Batch of 2 targets.
Target 1
Amino acid sequence: MAKPELLIDTPLLVCSARLLAFIRAFAAIDAHAALFPKECRTCGRVFQSFADYLRETKPKGHVLEDCSDVMRKTYTMMYRHCPCGNTLVLSVTGEIMPELEDFWTAVREEAETEERSIREVVKAFSEVCDDFIINGRDPTDLQDMGDQE
Ligand SMILES: [Zn+2]
């Protein structure tokens, strides 16, 4: 079977076009009042938007965890470190992000096709996603630079 077309292929960052399509869905959670502004209960720091949140916090481990089995509904936890050291968690549900289930299906399939762990696939995706949301670097621009249609 053909491998998914790789858009970004460096030793650290491998992410397929199929996964990158979900970046816009993640960027859209910015608009959800259920998530932002987000306050750190330890130091009181307030993150007004998703971009602020990503800019001012540091990713923790694999960042995104699919907790749908435990929660018995579409449910993803996003882990980041507040500058104060506290672990912040964003809970993203299917109501907040309808594409969430499709995202995890794409992650699992990419992990299988590429023989990489889900953790690695998620990490590469989050790095590209963070860059897009923080710096406005649109990965679809990168796609145009490729030699494949
Ligand atoms: Zn804090």
Target 2
Amino acid sequence: MKLPILVRIDAGHGGRDGGASGDGVNEKDLNLTSAKALQYLLKLQNIGSSLSRETDTRPTYADRVATPNDEGLVVAIHHDTATADPGLWVFFNDVKVAKPFAKTLGDSLGEAVGASVKVLSHWERKWYDKKGAVIGQGLYINDTIKPAVLVELGPTRTYTRDEMVARVESLVAPIVAFLAV
Ligand SMILES: [Zn+2]
């Protein structure tokens, strides 16, 4: 059965952009593994999705949030720096329904991990220069007219299979509920 493609999943970083690293793990690889796991778990719920990348490549920001099949939702997967604790974040873009969706995602992820998740507008993500001055703010998830979230699933480190699956699986029920509305 061919499923309609409803979700765009972006595996953060890739190629020469490794993202965070720690414990011998590169964030870009952890993101890709998690993104593929999410795609598989969604498929089990009869929800088709597209991936912004399937290998160690580095899509443009436009490609990351592209919705070639008119996907109704964009979910970007990231991990925080290795020393982050608990390193759990959900950022939402400016599309109105993204905020309540991000809250349900944050609740579900927090419950799965047993820690609190910060749920914030993407504008809260600021960029600093070496002297600590703000040089920019906002995230690429706002470069789409579709509701979009960027999830940081925890610090960049080695996860057991069960830990990784639990984190990714916590995203599934909120996504199913969001798409059913
Ligand atoms: Zn990242």
